[in-house]
Design brief:
20 helices; Amino acid/polyamine transporter I; mainly alpha; about 475 residues; globular; 4 strands; single chain; two-stranded antiparallel sheet
Length: about 475
């Protein structure tokens, strides 16, 4: 099989696994949980932020490894990455502005999904041979569904351990390297070496060191990016209402070809919006549950409420800001006849991080490009840290604690390899592995939804007598 034929085959596989069945399962499970919880994840966002603030400190006798605040920062470290910059732009470039609407829908029902994942992660977690609290989909499948479902737990852990090298490692280090090389002109190997060393210094200390780094780095980088995006939107405030309306209209109508944009059907908007939304916020993948299982907390429901903020912050706030900048900011676009015309950035024909950088640079000439440059660098680096923990916990489930140190060393090696190799196929492979991760987790969430509802009702009754 030639490389071209292999690439075509991978694209066909990606289209199949992200077909109607998975999209129905992903959105269906999230919608069912949202309705069954009586919209609690959406209605109690304020309470969740209060719990997050309280969760900066934990009681000394609470079981777990890191504070609830640190677990969310670790989860956000893994989710706020290239998906918020390159992923949003790619979704718009391939599916049209309507893809953003489907990212929102994925996030709104994904809050219930993420809540359920964390509740189950705390409820069914274990203590490993080294005395660490470990959990996640593989553990709530094994302990919640019983031995007959052990194969599903193994499948999730296997897909997660492998997927991490794509979604959380090589894709991230390659993105950092490309932008550093193009901006500063340094050799790719030097960028890879620095990234690998920094990664090693953090992950060798385990989740406690990852949590300590994420606790200050994630809020800082997110606030800088959000502030830059809001500044651009404030300058273009008159275009925001029409930008929002255009996104909603485009979600239900085909987007015509214009400028450098090739056009997109409604189905393309749904597919790429949901796929990139999941790539960004990871709701349904089950990955964030691995981090939340390490929380120093006795209350699974409270930790679930903290966890659901990850989806809200990642997509409803950060991705929306990126999308609105791309849709509202205008840039000069070269037309087929050789003339130039000012058009919305999404019509430029650019994609990925290049499209986001173009829009931010035009919207804020004094520093918009640097916001994307340094934002992508920091976002990608923290994703490498967060996903290293997901991968090693999955590998530990399969092979025991003895695999942790070798896995960390292999992780550092792949950070370097991702920087120096061409990764044309990695995005496609990553999409496939994301789908393969999501399926076992979503099946488990559907089967264990009764446990989630029971724990939620018990917690609500203890507080107010109702959810």
């Amino acid at each position: 099989m030639t490389l071209g034929a292999f690439e075509t085959w991978l694209n066909d596989v990606s289209s199949f696994v992200w077909g109607p069945a998975l999209l129905v399962l992903l959105l269906g499970v999230g919608l069912y949980l949202t309705l069954a919880l009586r919209f609690m994840p959406i209605l109690r966002i304020g309470t969740a932020f209060r719990l997050l603030f309280i969760g900066r400190k934990a009681k000394a006798d609470d079981p777990g490894e890191i504070t609830p605040f640190q677990t969310l920062m670790t989860a956000l470290a893994a989710t706020i990455g290239t998906g918020n910059i390159a992923g949003v732009a790619t979704a718009i470039a391939l599916g049209g502005p309507g893809a953003v609407f489907w990212m929102w829908m994925t996030a709104l029902v994904g809050m219930a999904t993420k809540y359920a994942e964390a509740v189950l992660a705390i409820h069914f977690r274990e203590v490993d041979a080294d005395g660490r609290h470990v959990g996640g989909p593989m553990y709530y499948i094994k302990n919640g569904l019983g031995k007959g479902w052990g194969w599903l737990a193994v499948a999730f852990a296997l897909f997660a351990a492998i997927a991490g090298f794509g979604i959380g490692n090589m894709v991230q280090s390659n993105s950092v390297t490309q932008i550093v090389v193009s901006t500063f002109g340094v050799p790719a190997w030097s960028v890879g070496l620095v990234l690998a060393v920094l990664t090693f210094l953090v992950i060798i200390g385990g989740v406690k060191r990852i949590g300590a780094v994420a606790e200050w780095l994630v809020p800082a980088m997110a606030l800088i990016f959000i502030a830059g995006g809001l500044t651009i939107l404030a300058i273009n405030w008159r275009d925001i209402p029409e930008g929002l309306a255009f996104i909603v209209r485009s979600a239900f109508t085909d987007t015509a070809a214009t400028g450098g944009f090739a056009g997109a059907a409604v189905w393309a908007g749904i597919r790429f919006g949901v796929a990139r939304g999941v790539f960004s916020n990871e709701a349904g993948l089950g990955s964030a549950a691995i981090a939340h299982a390490a929380a120093k907390s006795k209350d699974a429901v409270q930790q679930g409420m903290v966890a659901m903020l990850g989806t809200f912050i990642d997509t409803i706030i950060v991705c929306t800001i990126t999308a609105l900048v791309i849709v509202t900011v205008h840039v000069p676009v070269q037309l087929a006849d050789g003339s130039s015309q000012m058009m919305a950035a999404w019509e430029s024909g650019k994609t990925g991080a290049e499209l986001s950088a173009l829009a931010f640079a035009a919207g804020l000439p004094a520093g918009g490009h640097w916001i994307v440059t340094f934002g992508l660098m920091l976002f990608a680096f923290t994703t490498i840290l967060g996903w290293s923990y997901y991968g090693e916990r999955s590998a530990e489930f399969l092979f025991g604690v003895k695999v942790v140190t070798p896995y960390r060393c292999l992780w550092v090696l792949f950070v370097f390899l991702g920087s120096v190799l061409q990764l044309n196929l990695v995005w496609t492979i990553t999409d496939i592995l994301n789908a393969l991760m999501a399926a076992p987790n979503l099946i488990a969430l559907a089967l264990l939804s009764g446990v989630v509802l029971k724990l939620t009702r018990e917690s609500a009754t203890a507080r107010t007598g109702k959810i």
